[in-house]
Amino acid sequence: MKKILAIALGLISTAPAFASPLELASEVFVERAQKRADGSVAKILEAPKLVVPGDQLVFVVRYKNASAQPASKLSVTNPIPRAVAFSGTADGTEVVSVDGGKNWGFLPQLKVGKADGTFRPALPADVTHVKWNLNQTLAAGSAGKLVFRGVVR
Is the pTM of this model over 0.90? Predict the structure, then answer.
């Protein structure tokens, strides 16, 4: 029980790395199935009080250009908590790292070294960081959000 609670607290305190002048705020939600009165099932997002292996998580990173000037060539980088296996983003425009942020690429392009010196294709569970390059100029005060998903290991 203590291990599960520690995982939950670790997820809540995870903060993305960012480039100035962005102001960032991150949240994490657990996706749960909720049965409705009519018998149908709806997916709901709730704050994680307790997470267990297999729980589906949704991470939301809200960003805002906090400067008085337009900003361009911005990126947002977020580490993936060790207790979570990355499972993707809504739009697939992110680049990822499978080596702690040393190298970046689209997941199908990346390889992971094996103990015998050979390589295998990288899998979503190998992702250690996710990065979005905001390929647009952000007006002063403008904001948006980035979303990625994961599964508790």
Answer: no
